[in-house]
Write a structure and sequence with these properties.
The chain has 100 residues and is mainly alpha-helical. Helices cover 52% and strands 10% of the residues. The strands form 2 sheets. It has a two-stranded antiparallel ribbon. A two-stranded antiparallel ribbon has the order 3-4. Helix 1 runs antiparallel to helix 2. The longest helix is centred in the C-terminal third of the chain and has 28 residues.
């Protein structure tokens, strides 16, 4: 969305050229895409109202109903991602313990 793009570049460009555009877009609500391919809302929803998969923290949905409807498609990806997250967290704990 425009808000995210303008904010991203404004932080990285050291001039005032994007200040005016930032003022225009900062009131625009940030939008996200529902991970359910058959979302009845067409997939676009305000990000602050989205829910996410707490197991993998990757997939976002417009509602709990959409999350449940997409579970059969998401299940395998979720399992792999959750395993990767667990492995990473374990490696970080070991590294932290070894550095003490």
């Amino acid at each position: 969305d425009d808000h995210t793009l303008v904010s991203f570049y404004r932080k990285r460009i050291s001039c005032t050229c994007l200040d005016k555009k930032h003022k225009e877009v900062k009131s625009i609500k940030k939008m996200g895409l529902c991970n359910n391919k058959k979302c009845p809302l067409g997939g676009k929803v305000e990000r602050s109202k989205m829910v996410y998969c707490t197991r993998c923290s990757v997939a976002y949905y417009c509602s709990r109903d959409c999350q449940e409807a997409a579970w059969s498609d998401h299940r395998e990806v979720c399992k792999k991602r959750a395993e990767q997250n667990a492995k990473f967290e374990q490696e970080m704990r070991i590294r932290d313990q070894n550095s003490m």
